[in-house]
Queue: 4 jobs
Job 1
Amino acid sequence: MKAMEHLIQEGSLSPTELAGRLGVSTAAATLVVDRLVEVGHVDRRPHPHDRRRVVVVPRPASVGQAMAELMPMIGGVARAADALTDAERAAVTRFLGEVREVYREAAAGPAGPAASASAADPSAAR
């Protein structure tokens, strides 16, 4: 599913680019692409500027199917956002900003702020 998301957003990616986006090896990405080709969601095509490479392109029917499933959800979220008062919108914005920072710190890994605190004070890690 994540592979299709990246391909739909970009229009096409090389298998190596797709591997990078998915955080997997190129061998694993090749298996994903093989499976997507097999079930008819994508095609492999020659790279437009490098004859030695290929790009993976989502088929229009698969893009249309994904959009048909996502659009009602996107519309519902838009309606919910439109119904918020200015104060509610400010609260949601503040909350999501704080959540984003939590994710950024977690993505930074052990070198992030929590690791620094536990290195300075071993009891902070408990």
Job 2
Amino acid sequence: LRPDFMFHPEYEPTEPSGLLGVEPVSVSIQVIAARHLIRSGRGTTSPFVDIELLGADYDTGTKLTTKTVSDNGLNPVWNDSCDFDIINPHLALLRFQVQDLKP
């Protein structure tokens, strides 16, 4: 199940220079809104979204945090956008996590 470039003798997991035949990609994401988020039981919530790129060491660590929508946890609207430049898309994963500003 491994991509072909991983079988090449010059492949080194920590170095992007050994990615023979792998084309980097750019991904544009727009976080628009959410609907019917569950309340935490503490009254109103102030949600925000973390988007994080996980994968190879040289791709991992890029993170976007949307603005916080104060006291509108049921149907928040963010309209935030971000761009990710991914060197090795074969190993990349985008993680979306909706959180509440209030602990």
Job 3
Amino acid sequence: MRSIYHQPIKELAQAMFSNSLLTPPLSFFFFTNMADNNLQKLLDNNREWVESITKENPDFFINSSKGQQPKIVWFGCSDSRVPAETIVKAGPGEIFVHRNIANQFNHADLNSLSVLEYAVLHLKVEHVVVCGHYGCGGVLGSMGHNINGLVDNWLRNIKDVYLHNKSSVESCGDDKEKSDLLVELNVKKQVRNISATDIVQKAWTDGRKLTIHGWVYQLDTGLLKDLEVDVSSKQDLSEIYRYNC
């Protein structure tokens, strides 16, 4: 007997309604059919991808299963148009990736902190990349006053960035220029947040080569912009953020 987790969505729906007085609307099956097709397409794509990789390198997956040694950890936005590995043409094992809405690094977020600690202390990466993107919905949402749910709490940090740079942002010509500047300021803030962790500073104290970078992806061109805000030592930080480690 197949587990319910391996049954197509339409099949599950039919089983659910078969012994019930409820009758699902036709639109229900229309959308479940679409979902089935979309998921099957992903599975088919996966098989094609595996075939193309193994044709070029028969031992690729065997070697990949033995462990990872990426030199880069990537903190990016969850936006589906900014897939980290794709936009830099990286293969499996090259980048350790963490993504969330509006590429935030919050000192109270155990998820991001755990990723950073594992990448820096265990994988011993040499580069940390914070990558935002112009037209970021999270940044645009933080500039407004609408209630959007839990995400508003997450975006509060960007509102703080706006407030601390209010004169610069509001001197911009139009809303697009304002949001583009705030996207860049947000990336710069996350670079500073990561640099200010004891995780990163311990690596520096141990003599490790570790640099934090800030990049922005341009949706309309596909190009990355280096904001040139690299941080590679405690001396690059304000004294208040330096730990004795």
Job 4
Amino acid sequence: MAVEDVVGVGVGICSVGAGLCLKVYVSKLTPQIEDRVPATLEGARVEVEVVGDISAT
């Protein structure tokens, strides 16, 4: 997914309800992210989580 401010993706526990979902980790929430990231993908719930900037040291 080539969307600015997306810093990672993964599988995690949903914040609402039970079970697993796809997580899209972003440095900040923008209108572009809200428009481009679907609520579900092939039947799986998708959640956006703001994590800030990620860097390796």
